[in-house]
Amino acid sequence: YSKQLNTKQNAMKQKQHALAGITAAMLFISAYWLHSTARPGFSHFTKAVSELGSAGAPNALTWNALGYIIPGLLIAYFGVGLHQSVTQGEGGKLPLYGLVLSGLFLTLSGIFPGDFDNRNSFTMLVHSVGSIGSFVAFLTAAFSYPPFLKKNPFWEKTILSSLLLTWLCIFSGFLRSGAMPGIGQRFGFLFYFLWIIYMAIHLYRFNNHEHSA
């Protein structure tokens, strides 16, 4: 009975981790849509997403909280659950650290909003570290997971799609030049959160698969 209870508790925790990842993505997307719509003249093509929370921007506080800080913490929590499920406690820590740090760096970029009127300011510097750090940490996790994923038939089938989303996230960076640099950034966020959602859905389904196998 005790073993069965622990199994149910672990399944519930994994679903909580999975829902945290999905919620992070949905919260970011909803917050972006609401805040960009409420700001007349905000261009999706030329403005950086972070300008929604820049110093003096309307609703900057709520954007930084709902767009960066809370989603970042949720991603870090999701990262813990994903690693526990994929490795079953027998894997290296690099993917774990990568995804958790990606979330925490995203949170950091919300705690220190970008100051686009003074790009050399301390807050802008820390914001940039958070933004770039989140992306680099994500790539670390995404590229270090496949060796662990292929050890389990359930997770092995996610390798191709997860790597495709990762490469699309990278290639979106080439769209950040020219007259519409904002497009590339938004595609980068899109593929980043699609990766989160994709892996979170599989995490949510993982225990059901294990029990039915």
Feature tags:
elongated, 213 residues, mainly alpha
H/E series:
HHHHHHHH
Tell me, rounded to a whole number, the average pLDDT: 90
Q: From the structure provided, what is the oligomeric state, counting identical versus distinct chains?
A: single chain
Strand content: under 5%
Form type: elongated
How far from one another are the termini?
A: 21 Å
Q: Over all CA atoms, what is the radius of gyration?
A: 18 Å
Q: In DSSP terms, counting alpha (H) and pi (I) runs of 4 or more, how many helices? A: 8
Assign a percent range to the helix content.
over 70%
Q: Which stretches of 5+ consecutive residues score pLDDT under 50?
A: none
Class from secondary-structure proportions: mainly alpha
Q: Would you report the number of β strands? A: 0
What does the main sheet amount to? none
Explain what you see.
With about 210 residues, the chain is mostly helical. Helices cover about 75% and strands about 0% of the residues. The protein has eight helices and no strands. It has helices spanning about 1-35, 60-85, 95-110, 120-145, 145-150, 155, 160-170, 180-210. Helix 1 (about 1-35) runs antiparallel to helix 2 (about 60-85) and helix 2 (about 60-85) runs parallel beside helix 8. The radius of gyration is 18 Å and the shape is elongated.
Topology:
Elements: H1 2-37, H2 60-87, H3 94-111, H4 122-144, H5 146-149, H6 153-156, H7 159-171, H8 181-212
What is this structure, in a nutshell?
This protein has 213 residues and is mainly α. The chain has helices at residues 2-37, 60-87, 94-111, 122-144, 146-149, 153-156, 159-171, 181-212.
